[in-house]
Amino acid sequence: MTTFLLSRILQAAAVVLVMSVLVFLGVYAIGNPIDVLIDPAATQAMRAALIKQYGLDLPLWQQYWRFLTNLLRGDFGTSFVFRLPVLPLILSRLPATLELTVLAMTIATVIGVPLGIWAGYRPNSASSKAIMAGSTLGFSVPTFWVGLLLILAFAVELRWLPSGGRGAVGEVAGVRLSLFTADGWRHLALPALNLSLFKLGLLIRLVRAGTEEVMGQEHVRFARAQGLPERQVVGLHVLKNIGIPIITVFGLEFGSTLAFAVVTETVFNWPGMGKLIIESITSLDRPVMVAYLILVVLLFVAINLVVELTYGVLDPRVRARAA
Amino acid sequence: MRSFWREYRRSAVAVAALLAIVVIVAMALAAPLFVPQDPYDQAGLDLGDARLPPGEVGSGGYVHWLGTDNAGRDLVSAILYGLRLSLFIAVGAGAVAMVLGTAVGLFAAYSGGRVEALIMRVIDLQLSLPAILLALVLVAMLGQGVPQLMAALVAAQYAYFARTAFGAAKAERQRDYIEAALSTPMGGGQVLWRHLLPNTLPPLIVVATVQVATAISLEATLSFLGLGLPITRPSLGLLIANGFQFLLSGRYWISVYPGVALMLTVLAINLVGDQLRQVLSPKRR
Fold it and tell me: Contact B248/A256, CB-based, under 8 Å?
């Protein structure tokens, strides 16, 4: 087990290092930051001073080395646009993105799991067919366009909910979230619903496929033959058997929902990390871009590592193959 | 082929979706022949016609059935041209991704050993990253424009083909007839081409269908975020993005109609993909 653990952690570290080089090189290939950052009317002396200050005159590998050593110290540089240290800047946007993502995942689960079980339990009923059609619609329609429709319906026509922004934030134990205020919930409702729809469609399919498979298995037929009430058959056997794969996929999907929040945040003008990264790409704010990408890579590598280690614990064959 | 069609025909929805795709593609391809305006010709646009509601007659003397956008483009013309562009990008990128991904997957399955382990490790890593993020990063790196966008889509999508081709070829590789073919003087390349490739095609066709739909969505999303195509040649995503700012003032048509076109296209392709998966899955044969 220790060898397995070590080899996986080393692999993950190697991936992060390679990605940091790729991200750095890639981002440095975009345009010429000097033209963007420095006022064209600035004097030669001012330009030279600024280039020196940002280290833009050094050879590329030296800039990377500087970047890497700073990274290890937790120093991601200073935003060209906000004039703030990058790490605190990104982290200050994290609560907004997290509450949006968590709420969206919750909506998807609370609605998606029961619907998926029903669709797998009665695959030929009209209601199941309607559910499946809805799920296909859910991941066929691009997220940003659904967002526009939601704004059009609930903000422009009905005037029930605000069209964007974060609204009032409450503070509990030092954490500032919209979840603590009524106005915050009003602002959260549409973006969270928007972000949840794609995952909802996916989850319904996943749960249905799992349910259909379990329903056909011996032990479920046996439980029925025993005269166990249907509620118990579904509640006990089906839920138990589809639980583990669903939790696994959910772990992986959490990361991708965070990434998808980029779109929803832009549509609803939600001040989270996603909106920050889009703004930093369009304004060539390189330190913010690089730091965001590195953080995302770290997050995904961490999620994958946890999932693989869990498999390793659950299934000895995985360990044997890796060693 | 006939039995394939008999199977496919069982779902009326899937047949309707296929028909819809044929109509959409035909209209998009034939657009320059019948639309009233070339939306990419800046000189031909009249700002006086900007934001006309659907059904109104503009300075050109014809009816704008779906209204006009904020640059005075007739939306019927702009949507069909945008569709052309979106389809061209998605199908083009999908085809390249399919060839590249299949080659990588087959090569890994055929080589086995360390080469296989290394290639599939990279592929799996890439698959764990969301395509939107990958495309976003690549577009940010490469800059804007059609070739850059297509390159980003190919890079974000080839891994799906590689995984599928690898899985199918790996299963086939174990069969006795492949061993037999390898022991003849046929040569590895020929075995790959004549035996492994044809057997991986059905699942690849399903993936290709779904990936084209995904590519259309991705392209639209990137353009909406302002990272896709230049504003003078609007794709569907850009048309929607341009209309977004007028949505709150009640000029819904600039965003909504291009969006409807986008949704119908993606939905039809996904429905066809679903049915293909049913028909082509080996379980059912």
Answer: no
Reduced to 3 states, what is the DSSP secondary structure of residue B13?
Answer: helix
| Residues B227, A281: C-beta atoms closer than 8 Å | yes
Answer whether residue B142 shows pLDDT above 70. yes
ipTM score of the complex? 0.78
Q: Are the beta carbons of A255 and B221 separated by less than 8 Å?
A: no
**Chain A residue nearest residue B122, CA to CA:** A15
Please indicate whether, in this complex, the C-beta atoms of A136 and B274 are within 8 angstroms of each other: yes
pLDDT at residue B35 above 50?
yes
Q: Environment class of residue A154 by beta-carbon count within 10 Å: exposed (0-12), middle (13-18) or buried (19+)?
A: middle
pLDDT of residue B95: 93
Cβ proximity of B247 and A149 under 8 Å: no
pLDDT of residue B92: 93
DSSP letter, residue A134:
H
Residues of B in contact with A136 (CB under 8 A): 267, 270-271, 274
How far is it, in rounded angstroms, from Cα A158 to Cα A174? Answer: 36
Residue type present at position A205: R
What is residue B285's predicted lDDT score, i.e. its pLDDT? 41
- Per-residue CA distances from B234 to A208, B186, B229 (Å): 39, 51, 7
Residues near B37 by Cβ (< 8 Å), separated by ≥ 6? B44, B45, B60, B73, B74, B77
pLDDT in tens, B66-119: 777 777 677 778 888 888 888 999 999 999 999 999 999 988 888 878 888 888
Whether A156 sits inside 8 A of B132 (CB atoms) is no
User: HSE on the CB side for A16, CA within 13 Å?
Assistant: 22
Judged by CB atoms closer than 8 Å, whether chains meet at A142 and B217 is answered as yes
Q: Collapsing DSSP states into helix, strand and coil, what is residue A236?
A: helix
CB–CB contact A139 B270 (8 Å): yes
For tokens 């391809």, name the residue. B29
Amino acid letter, residue B185: P
Contacts of A137 in chain B (CB under 8 A): 267
Name the nearest CA neighbour of B247 among A138, A163, A191, A262: A163
- Residue numbers in A near B213 (CB within 8 A): 140
For chain A, residues with pLDDT lower than 70 are 1, 26-42, 54, 168, 170, 172-175, 180, 244, 311-323
Nearest 5°: phi and psi at B68? -130, 160
Return the DSSP state at B74: B
Interface test with A, best of B86, B114, B129, B246 (most A CBs within 10 A): B129
Residues of B in contact with A140 (CB under 8 A): 213, 263, 266-267, 270
H helices of A44-85, in order, are 44-54, 60-72
Asked if B104 contacts B79 with a C-beta cutoff of 8 angstroms, the reply is: no
Instruction: Find, in chain A, the residue whose alpha carbon is nearest to that of B256.
Output: A149
Q: What is the DSSP letter of A178?
A: G
- pLDDT tens digit sequence for B179-233: 777 777 766 677 777 777 787 888 888 889 889 998 998 888 888 888 777 767 7
